[in-house]
Amino acid sequence: MASSVPSAYGEELPSSTKTKPKAATPLRRTAADSLPIRVNPTPTRGNIQPVITLATAERYLLSRLRLSTPSHLQAQMLHDAWYIPRWSTKKGTQGDSAQEGEIFVFGNGSFVCWGLDEKGAQNFAEEVLRARRDVEIGRLKEPEVEELDFVTDPTEWVNSSAPKTRLQGDLIILGEAPPISPDAMLTTVPPTPFSPETILARYAFSQALSRSTALSALEVSLEDYLAGMALLPQSLEKTGKPGMSRKQLIKKLGELLKYRQGLNLNRENFSDTPDYYWDEPVLEGYFNSLSNALEIRARTRSINEKITYAAELQAVLRQLLTESSAHRMELIIIVLIAVEVVIALIREGPELWRKLTRSGDESEAHTALVH
C-alpha cells in the first residue's frame, strides 16, 4: 500500500500522487487562500470538483478531430477550442463512480476536463482523440497532467469591488455570470452539466490551464534534450572532440529549433494574450489571473534562456566541426598533391632519366673530342 503524506489542508494523500502545478508556483504558495471556501460550505455552494488538464501530444489537428467526434456528443468550435459539452464515464468494475463533465480541446496538444478525474480524461483521450491516428501530432511518451479544483456558487460574493467568478488560491470559484458583450455569447448552448452562463469563464480558465500544461510538456522534453547534451563539454575537455558527427549535430539543431518555434512562433504560443480577449476585459482578467498564477510568462522566458544556451553550445560545436573538417580537407589536398607528384615521377621518371643520362653522355663525348 502506498504511503501517505499530508496535504496543504491537513488531509492525507498517497505519496505517489503528483501534486501539480508544481509547489514553486504562486498558485501553490497561495493555496491557503482557498481554505475558507473549502472548509466553510454553504447551502448554495456545490461540491468541490476537479479540473484536469492533459497534454498528450505536441499539437492536435482540430479539423480532423471534428471528423472523428461522435455526433451525439454535440461538439462544436468555441473560439480556439473544440468544445465537448457533456462527457460521461460509466461506473467502473472496481467501485469507481460514474462521472459527468465537459471538455475543451485546444490545438496546443492539451485538453481540459471539468468535473472529471484523470481516469475520465484518459478515457476521453482513448475513445475520441485516438479514434484517428492523425489527430495527435508528435505524441508524447508520457502525458503531462495538471489538476486544480473548482466550485460553483451563483450567490458567491466577496465585496463590492471583487469579482464573484475568480481564482482564489488554487480554487476556481464560478459565481454569477460575467458581464460580456452579446457578440461573445454562443447562439446555442448544448446541454452541459454546469451553468451555461459561465461557459465563457470556464473557457478562459481552460485556455490558461491548457497553455500551462502544454508548456510543462515542453519543459520536460527540453530537459531530456539538455540532459542528452550535458556530456558534450566534458567530452571536449577530456578528448578535445565534440563526441558527435556533423549529421547528429544538425539533427540536434533541428530539434532545438522545433522547440523554439513551438514556444514562440506557433499560433497557440505562450507569450501573447489571445486576440479574442481584447474586446472582453472580464474574460481577459480570468485568463491573466490564472496565467500569472501559473507563471507562464516567466517559465517561457526561462525556457528561451535554456534554448539560447543550447544554441550557443551548438554554435561552438559547429565551429569546431567546421575547423576539423577544414583541417582534414587541407590534409587531403596535401596528400593528393603528393600522390600526383609520385604518379608523375612514376610516369615521366624513366624518360626524364634517359634525357639526363643522354645529356651526360653527350657532354663527355664533346669533352673527349676537344682534347
Automatic annotation (TrEMBL):
One of its GO terms (biological process) is positive regulation of mitochondrial translation. It holds the Pfam family DUF155. Residues 103-304 form the DUF155 domain. InterPro entries: DUF155, RMD1/Sad1-interacting. One of its GO terms (cellular component) is mitochondrion. Belongs to the RMD1/sif2 family. Residues 1-42 are annotated as: Disordered. This is DUF155 domain-containing protein.
